[in-house]
């Protein structure tokens, strides 16, 4: 019933498409990007109800003053900017390694076809766990700690993964450990990078 599951995400997207025009724009977007002060205050009242939002508005005005000299770049301008190429390459390599190593491990594990849907479900659950966990701890630890910890944890998991793949012919149970390590890799990736 994969087609029903796939169409469910389309149904959710359709509902969002129908109702999204009735919601106001983000107040920071209206003030910082569009420079619409009245629209910003109106959006705050629509989102948060009647009240005095001068403190929040003043904070946005301070942020606007700080970012006044910076230019907002689109995707093509970011790709052309040489100073961000190392970061873009790192992210691209991480994304590709995440995609390609999962395929190789599932192929190496010689999983039965009846188990593969559960493995796919496990990957999705791992991504969901990492999103929930990261969003709840990022304010407590900060991005730098999560990035460094995530990279270190990913490196450790990859070492264990390589070891389990090398020994999977001798120990059949290591094939399933490889799948579990992929789940942990996805969680570590979601927590940090």
UniProtKB/TrEMBL annotation:
GO annotation (BP), single: dehydroascorbic acid transport
Chain segments annotated as transmembrane: 6-24, 118-138, 145-167, 173-192
Topological relation to the membrane, as annotated: Multi-pass membrane protein
Record-annotated Major facilitator superfamily (MFS) profile domain positions: 1-193
Compartments where found: Membrane
Keywords of the record: Membrane, Transmembrane, Transmembrane helix
Organism encoding this protein: Cardinalis cardinalis (Northern cardinal)
Gene (UniProt): Slc2a9_2
GO cellular component: plasma membrane
Protein name: GTR9 protein
Signal peptide: none
């Amino acid at each position: 019933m994969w087609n029903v599951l796939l169409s469910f995400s389309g149904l959710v997207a359709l509902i969002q498409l129908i109702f999204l025009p009735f919601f106001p724009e983000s107040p920071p977007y209206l003030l910082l990007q569009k420079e619409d002060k009245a629209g910003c205050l109106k959006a705050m009242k629509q989102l948060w109800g009647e009240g005095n939002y001068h403190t929040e508005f003043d904070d946005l005005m301070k942020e606007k003053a700080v970012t006044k000299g910076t230019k907002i770049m689109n995707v093509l301008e970011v790709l052309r900017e040489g100073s961000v190429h190392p970061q873009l390459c790192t992210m691209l390599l991480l994304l590709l390694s995440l995609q390609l190593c999962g395929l190789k491990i599932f192929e190496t594990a010689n999983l039965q076809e009846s188990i593969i849907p559960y493995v796919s479900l496990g990957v999705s659950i791992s991504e969901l766990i990492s999103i929930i966990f990261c969003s709840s701890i990022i304010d407590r630890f900060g991005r730098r700690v999560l990035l460094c910890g995530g990279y270190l944890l990913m490196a450790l998991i990859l070492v264990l993964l390589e070891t389990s793949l090398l020994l999977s012919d001798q120990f059949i149970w290591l094939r399933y450990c490889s799948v579990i390590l992929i789940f942990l890799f996805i969680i570590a990736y979601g927590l940090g990078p």
